[in-house]
Write a structure and sequence with these properties.
The complex is a heterodimer of chains A (986) and B (89).
Chain A (H helix, E strand, L loop, with lengths): L10 E10 L2 E7 L3 H7 L6 E2 L6 E2 L12 E4 L6 E5 L9 E5 L25 H5 L5 H15 L13 E13 L3 H12 L4 E4 L15 E2 L2 E2 H14 L3 E4 L2 E7 L2 E6 L15 E13 L3 E3 L12 E3 H9 L8 E6 L2 H12 L3 E7 L6 H9 L4 E3 L2 E6 L5 E6 L2 E6 L2 E5 L2 E3 L12 E3 L4 E3 L7 E3 L9 H18 L12 E2 L19 E3 L4 E2 H9 L5 H8 L12 H11 L4 H4 L13 H5 L11 E2 L3 H6 L3 E5 L2 E6 L8 H14 L2 E4 L4 E6 L3 H8 L12 E7 L5 E9 L4 E6 L4 H15 L6 E4 L4 E7 L3 H8 L16 E6 L3 E6 L8 E7 L3 H12 L5 E2 L2 H11 L31 H4 L2 H4 L4 E8 L11 E4 L11 E8 L6 E8 L8 E6 L4 E8 L14
Parallel strand pairs in A: 1-7, 8-9, 8-15, 9-12, 15-28, 17-24, 18-19, 18-24, 19-20, 32-34, 35-45
Antiparallel strand pairs in A: 1-2, 3-4, 5-6, 5-7, 10-11, 10-29, 13-14, 14-15, 16-25, 21-22, 22-23, 26-27, 30-31, 33-34, 35-41, 36-39, 36-40, 37-38, 38-39, 41-44, 42-43, 43-44, 46-49, 46-51, 47-48, 47-50, 48-49, 50-51
Chain B lengths: L1 E4 L3 E4 L4 E5 L12 H10 L7 E7 L7 E7 L5 E6 H6 L1
Antiparallel strand pairs in B: 1-2, 3-4, 4-5, 5-6
The chains are: A alpha+beta (986), B alpha+beta (89).
Bound molecules: zinc ion (ZN).
C-alpha cells in the first residue's frame, strides 16, 4: 500500500471497493480512481496510442494524457475517461484501454520496434497505395490498433438536460483567484456564477500548503464556498467544466451523476449549461509543464504538481524513492513536502546553476541531495527503476521508483483564445499569456501568470471589483488578505538534448522528438503543419501538456523564437464533452415537438394510421378490418366521398386573422390576384409569390366583415407566410392600417365533402337555412353556430371537387364537431378520410400542392398564370416578368396518363420523346405527383413538361430507371375529373 | 448571443430569426429601370467585414421586425431598432 499514514482530504472512515482491469481494490471516499490506483500500487493504467508502451498516471487533473480508462459495462459503458477526474464510488468498475490481451503484456508493443516505419507522417506515406488495400487491410488494422477506447453499442439509458442561465459575472475556476474574485463581486450584490471542474472547489488550495487570511488553503476554500452558497444571487457549480465560448455564450457541462454508479432518480447524468454573463473572469489556474527526455513516459514519471496533489490531498505516493527534475522553486517545495510526509527524496535535479539560498538551506537541513546545473538524461525500466543524471561531474545512475518533473507552469488560457486570440510568449514568466481576451473577459490568478498565492488573491480581488463595477455595482474596500506560500520563481525548461531512446513530446498521440526532427527535415516549419503531419496535440487532451514543448522544440530546430514560431489555434471544447450532453432531450420523439390535431384522439379511436406533415401528426387513412393494404382503404375513402360524403380534419392549415381598413389593399400587394374587391361573405383562392417571382404559397382568404378577413395557408408554410406578412407590414408598408394574429391553434376546421354534404351539415347547423345553396353559394363564407350554440365559421370550399364545406369551431369543440358529423352522416355512410385520399382527389382534380409549389415554379408554370393581375403591383411581379421566367419553353403544368392503363405512374419519373435515348439533352420534364385513381380506375399523374399544355395529346416515353419503369404515356389536361367543376355547384 | 429588443428587452438569439440584409429599400415597381433595380434589391449583397445591418424577426417574442446593426467580426450588436420606427423616420 502506498497510502500515507496521515493527512489528506479523504474520509478514512468510508472505505470503497472498486475493480480495475478485473482485479478488486479498495479506496476511500474523496479519492479519485487515479489516487486509489496509486494507493494500491497500480503502476500501469494504459497502453499508448501508437507504440503501445505501458503508461502510468502523469497528473492529478483534467490535463491527464495517459490514464484514459473505460468505466462501467453494458449500456453505461464509457470509454476515454480520465482516471484523474473520476470520483471513486463503491462498486466502480474500470478497464484499461488500448491493450491486447492485457495491460501487463501487450502484443502490439512490437510496434516500438517498427517505429522507423510509423514515425511522423506515416499515415500519409504508408497507406497511400495501393488504394484497394485501404478497405481490406489498412483500415481494419489501423482502427484496431490506434483506436482510443471503444464506445458502448447499446442506447444510453440516462437523461441529459440543457440549462440556460444569465448572470452579471461568470467566474471560471474556484481556486484562490476565482474564489476571491467571486466573493468580491458577490458581496457587492452582483449575480455570480462560479464553476469548477472539481467536486471539491478550491483548486490548488486543496493541494498546496498555503495560508490565506490566517486560514490554511483548504479551510479558506471551504469557508469561501459556504459564504458564496449562502448568497441568494450566487450559483456555485461544482463538477462543471466551462468548455467553450460561442459568441458571448459560455458552454459548460455539469457532471451531475457521473460520480455515481447510476444517476439518482429523476436527475440527469449531465447538464449542458449555456451561460450568458455580462463579465467573465477566467481563473482556470496553471498546470505543470512536462520536460521532454528519453523515457519520460515511463510509469512512475509524474508532474510535480500532480505529485503534490497526491501527497497533500489524497495522502498517497506513487513511489517510495522519489527524485525531482524541475527548473522552478515550486517543485522544491513539493520535494520538501514529500520529505515531510516521510517519503524518501532521492535527489532534486535542477538545470539552473544556482538556486535561492533559503531553498538550498532547507534542502540541506532535510538532508536532501541536490544536483544543480544537471538534467535527467534517461529514465529506465518498464515501470520506473532508475534515472541517469548528467551533471557537471558526469553521468550517474540513481535508483528511484518515481520522478516528479516540472519545466515551468502553463497557464490555462485556452478559453481566452476561443475567439481566435493568440497568446504571446512571456520570457520572464516562461509562459504563454493572453493580453487580449474576448470582450468582457478578464484573466486572474495563475491563468494570468500570477504564480504566487498573494498575487493570485490580489488579481482575484482586482478583477472581481472591476467586473462588479462594470455591471453597475459599487464595491466596498476590503482589507488585503495576508497570504503566505512558496516561491514562484523559475525558468521554463523544455527538453533534454540527447540522441538516446524515445523522448515523448505528446504522450497521448505518441509524438517523439524524432518525429519533429523528421517533420522539420521534410520542410514543415509552420506549427499548424507540424501538428497535422505528426498528430502533435491532436489527442483528446488537445495537447495541454504537449503543445508548448512541441512548439519550443520546433522553434529551436528552425532557429526561431517561440513568439515568432507562433501557436496553433485554440478551439473548443476545452475538455471532451459527451454527445449525450450536447443532444440533451432532443432525441427520438423528443427531437422536436409533435403537434396533434384537435381530432387526433378521435381519429386514433377509429384506428387511423398517422403521418407527419411538418410538425403535425395527421390521419393518413382509416383502415377497416379485412382491407389488404393502404391503397384499398384509400380507394374506398375516395369512392365514399365521390358517391356520398366524407370528412377530414384540415385544422393544420395556417389560419391568420387580419383586421383593419387597409386589409384589402394589403392583400392586393401580397397576392397575385385582387382581393380588395371581394365582397363580405365571400372567399377567394389566392397565390402568393416571393419577391424573386417564384410561388411561395397558396390558399383561400375570406372576408367575414368589412374590416375582418381570415386567411388560410398551406400546413407547412404557415409560419413562413405569417412572418412574411409581418415583414411586408412592418418593413415595406408600415403606413397600412392592418393588424394580424395567428389563429391556427384557436380554430378546429373540418372539411365535409360529397353530394350529401349539405344534408349532413344542415343536421348540425343551428340555422340550416344559412347553408342553403342560394344563401351560401360556392366560395361563400358565413359566421353562424352549430350543435346548439357553438359559434362556427362555415366556408363553401372544395379541394376534393365535390360539393364541400369547411366548418370551423373553437379548437376545444373539434372532437365534438367530428362526432356530431359522424352521427349526422351515419345514414349517408359518411366516411372519415385521411391525407392519402385528400391527395388522390386533388390529383384527380388537377390542383397543385407541395410537390408543385417547390420554390422553382412561377404562377404560370403551375397553370394559374391567368390569375395574375396586370393592373397592380404585388410582391414578385417585377421579377416574375424576367425573360427566363416567361420563356415559352419553360416546364408547364400538365396531366399524364399511361397509354397501357396497367402501368403505374410514379412521382419522379422523367419524360422523354418516344424512342429517344435517356439522356439529359432529351429530358422534357418530370411527374411531380401521381396516384392510383379510384375514380378513373387507373394511375394518373401531374407534372411539368417543356412547352406545357401545348403538348396535350402528345405521346411520350416515361422513364423510371430507379424503379424499373419504361412505358408510353399520353399528355392531357391535369383536370382529370369533372373539368367544368359542376359537382361543386350543386 | 443576446439581442436587445426595444419592445421585450435583452433576449436570447434563439428567439429570433435572421432574414437578411437590411440596407436595401424595395424599389419603385413603376420606375423605368424597375427590373434592374429589383434584381439588385433581391440578389446583390455587400458582405462587410465589420458593421452590418440585418433584419431580425422576434418570432418567439413580440413578433416585431428589428433592424439590427451587428459586427460580423465580433458578433457585437451595436444597435437594435423597430422596423416600423426605422422605415417611418
Ligand atoms: Zn421583442
Amino acid at each position: 500500500m502506498s497510502r500515507l499514514a496521515h493527512g489528506g482530504l479523504i474520509d478514512r472512515s468510508r472505505p470503497l471497493a472498486f475493480k480495475f482491469a478485473g482485479k478488486s481494490y479498495a479506496g476511500y471516499a474523496g479519492d479519485t480512481l487515479a489516487s486509489a490506483l496509486i494507493a494500491n500500487d497500480v503502476k500501469i493504467v494504459g497502453r499508448s496510442f501508437k507504440y503501445h508502451r505501458p503508461r502510468g498516471i502523469m497528473t492529478a487533473g483534467s490535463e491527464e494524457p495517459n490514464a484514459l480508462v473505460a468505466l462501467r459495462s453494458g449500456a453505461r459503458h464509457e470509454p476515454n475517461t480520465r482516471a484523474t477526474m473520476v470520483e471513486l464510488f463503491d462498486g466502480l468498475e474500470a478497464f484499461g484501454q488500448n491493450a491486447f490481451p492485457s495491460l501487463g503484456f501487450d502484443a502490439m508493443a512490437v510496434n516500438q520496434l517498427l517505429s522507423r516505419f510509423i514515425g511522423a507522417g506515416f499515415y500519409y506515406k504508408t497507406f497511400m497505395w495501393p488504394k484497394a488495400f485501404w478497405e481490406l487491410l489498412y483500415e481494419p488494422v489501423v482502427r484496431n490498433s490506434a483506436g482510443i477506447g471503444i464506445a458502448g453499442a447499446e442506447p444510453d439509458p440516462d437523461h441529459y438536460e440543457k440549462v440556460t442561465a444569465y448572470c452579471d459575472v461568470l467566474v471560471i475556476g474556484a481556486g484562490a483567484a476565482g474564489l476571491t474574485a467571486a466573493l468580491t463581486a458577490a458581496r457587492a450584490g452582483a449575480r455570480v456564477i462560479i464553476a469548477d471542474e472539481d467536486h471539491l472547489p478550491g483548486g490548488r488550495l486543496n493541494s498546496e500548503n498555503v495560508v490565506i487570511g490566517g486560514h490554511d488553503g483548504a479551510q479558506y476554500a471551504k469557508a469561501a464556498i459556504a459564504e458564496l452558497s449562502s448568497l441568494p444571487k450566487v450559483r456555485v457549480l461544482t463538477r462543471t467544466t466551462v468548455f467553450g465560448i460561442y459568441d458571448d455564450t459560455y458552454a459548460a457541462v455539469e457532471r451531475v451523476g457521473d460520480h455515481l454508479a447510476v444517476p439518482e432518480a429523476f436527475k440527469p447524468r449531465q447538464k449542458l449549461w449555456r451561460i450568458i454573463p455580462k463579465r467573465t473572469i477566467l481563473a482556470a489556474g496553471a498546470i505543470s509543464q512536462p520536460i521532454v527526455f528519453p523515457g519520460n513516459d515511463r510509469p512512475g514519471v509524474m508532474l510535480a504538481q500532480g505529485l503534490q496533489t497526491y501527497i497533500n490531498r489524497y495522502a498517497v505516493t506513487p513511489g517510495q524513492h522519489v527524485a525531482f527534475f524541475a527548473s522552478n522553486d515550486a517543485a522544491w517545495t513539493v520535494a520538501f513536502e514529500a520529505a515531510k510526509a516521510g517519503i524518501d527524496v532521492a535527489a532534486i535535479i535542477d538545470p539552473r546553476p544556482e538556486i535561492r539560498a533559503d531553498l538550498a538551506a532547507e534542502a540541506k537541513v532535510r538532508g536532501l541531495r541536490t544536483l544543480l546545473g544537471a538534467v535527467v538524461e534517461q529514465a529506465h525500466g518498464s515501470t520506473l527503476k532508475a534515472i541517469s543524471v548528467r551533471g557537471s561531474q558526469g553521468t550517474e545512475r540513481i535508483a528511484v521508483d518515481a520522478l516528479a518533473v516540472s519545466g515551468g507552469h502553463s497557464p490555462n488560457i485556452q478559453l481566452a483564445c476561443h475567439h481566435r486570440g493568440r497568446p504571446d510568449w512571456n520570457e520572464v514568466k516562461g509562459a504563454l499569456l493572453v493580453s487580449e481576451p474576448p470582450p468582457g473577459m478578464a484573466i486572474a490568478g495563475a491563468a494570468a501568470g500570477h504564480f504566487a498565492i498573494s498575487a493570485c488573491v490580489a488579481s482575484g480581488v482586482e478583477t472581481g471589483t472591476k467586473a462588479a463595477v462594470d455591471c453597475g455595482y459599487s464595491v466596498a474596500k476590503a482589507p488585503v488578505l495576508a497570504c503566505s506560500g512558496h516561491s514562484a520563481d523559475g525558468s521554463a525548461f523544455f527538453h533534454v538534448k540527447t540522441q538516446k531512446g524515445f523522448a515523448f513530446v505528446d504522450l497521448q498521440t505518441d509524438v517523439t522528438v524524432k518525429d519533429i526532427n523528421i517533420a522539420v527535415r521534410e520542410g514543415f516549419r509552420s506549427v499548424e503543419h507540424l501538428k497535422r503531419y505528426t498528430a502533435l496535440g491532436m489527442g483528446a487532451d488537445q495537447g495541454k501538456l504537449s503543445n508548448l514543448n512541441g512548439l519550443a522544440i520546433l522553434a529551436e530546430k528552425t532557429g526561431r523564437t517561440i513568439q515568432d514560431t507562433g501557436t496553433t489555434i485554440y478551439r473548443p471544447p476545452y475538455t471532451s464533452v459527451s454527445f449525450g450532453a450536447l443532444v440533451g432531450h432532443h432525441r427520438g420523439k423528443d427531437f422536436r415537438p409533435t403537434r396533434l390535431t384537435p381530432t387526433h384522439f378521435w381519429a386514433k379511436k377509429l384506428g387511423a394510421k398517422f403521418t407527419e406533415t411538418g410538425a403535425w401528426l395527421r390521419a393518413q387513412y382509416f383502415p377497416k378490418p379485412g382491407e389488404i393494404d393502404w391503397l384499398q382503404t384509400v380507394q374506398r375513402e375516395v369512392k365514399a366521398v365521390r358517391s356520398s360524403a366524407g370528412m377530414i380534419d384540415v385544422s393544420t392549415f395556417g389560419k391568420i386573422d387580419l383586421q383593419g381598413p387597409d386589409v384589402g389593399q394589403f392583400l392586393d400587394r401580397v397576392y397575385v390576384n385582387t382581393f380588395s374587391t371581394l365582397p363580405v361573405g365571400k372567399a377567394r383562392y389566392g397565390v402568393m409569390l416571393r419577391e424573386d417571382g417564384m410561388v411561395m404559397d397558396d390558399g383561400t382568404t375570406a372576408r367575414l366583415s368589412d374590416a375582418q378577413w381570415v386567411m388560410t395557408t398551406t400546413t407547412v408554410n404557415a409560419v413562413k407566410v405569417f412572418s412574411h406578412l409581418e415583414y411586408c407590414l412592418q418593413v415595406l408598408w408600415p403606413d397600412l392600417d392592418v393588424r394580424m394574429a395567428s389563429i391556427s391553434e384557436q380554430w378546429a376546421q373540418i372539411a365535409l365533402a360529397g353530394p350529401n354534404a349539405r344534408k349532413i351539415l344542415q343536421k348540425i347547423a343551428d340555422e340550416p337555412g344559412r347553408v342553403e345553396n342560394a344563401a351560401l353559394p360556392v366560395m361563400g363564407a358565413t359566421q353562424t353556430s352549430v350543435m346548439g350554440g357553438i359559434k362556427a365559421r362555415i366556408f363553401r370550399l372544395s379541394f376534393s371537387g365535390e360539393l364541400g364545406y369547411e366548418v370551423a369551431v373553437p379548437a376545444r369543440y373539434g372532437e365534438k364537431l367530428a362526432e356530431a358529423l359522424v352521427a349526422a352522416g351515419e345514414q349517408f355512410g359518411i366516411t372519415p378520410y385521411g391525407t392519402e385520399a385528400l391527395a388522390m382527389m386533388r390529383i384527380e382534380k388537377g390542383h397543385v400542392s407541395g410537390p408543385e409549389l417547390n420554390g422553382q415554379t412561377t404562377v404560370t408554370d403551375i397553370g394559374l398564370g391567368k390569375m395574375a393581375s396586370k393592373k397592380k403591383d404585388y410582391i414578385g411581379r417585377t421579377l416574375a416578368e424576367r425573360p427566363g421566367l416567361v420563356d415559352e419553353n419553360r416546364l408547364g403544368f400538365v396531366g399524364i396518363m399511361p397509354v397501357n392503363k396497367k402501368n403505374v405512374v410514379r412521382a419522379g419519373i422523367h419524360l422523354l420523346p418516344l424512342g429517344a435515348p435517356a439522356t439529359v439533352e432529351n429530358d422534357l420534364g418530370y411527374i411531380s405527383s401521381a396516384t392510383q385513381s379510384a375514380t378513373l380506375g387507373h394511375a394518373v399523374g401531374v407534372g411539368f413538361l417543356k412547352g406545357g399544355p401545348k403538348r396535350i395529346g402528345e405521346r411520350l416515353r416515361a422513364f423510371d430507371p430507379l424503379r424499373g419503369g419504361d412505358f408510353e404515356v399520353e399528355i392531357c389536361s391535369p383536370h382529370f375529373y369533372d373539368p367544368q367543376g359542376d359537382r361543386v355547384r350543386v | 448571443m443576446l439581442i436587445d429588443c426595444p419592445y421585450c428587452g435583452a433576449r436570447d438569439s434563439h428567439e429570433f430569426t435572421y432574414r437578411g440584409d437590411a440596407t436595401g429599400t424595395r424599389p419603385d415597381p413603376a420606375a423605368e429601370n424597375a427590373g434592374e433595380a429589383f434584381h439588385d434589391y433581391v440578389y446583390l449583397r455587400d458582405n462587410p467585414a465589420g458593421d452590418h445591418l440585418g433584419w431580425w424577426y422576434h418570432g418567439a417574442g413580440c413578433r416585431q421586425w428589428l433592424k439590427v446593426s451587428r459586427n460580423t467580426l465580433t458578433h457585437a450588436i451595436n444597435a437594435v431598432r423597430l422596423a416600423r420606427d426605422e422605415v417611418k423616420s
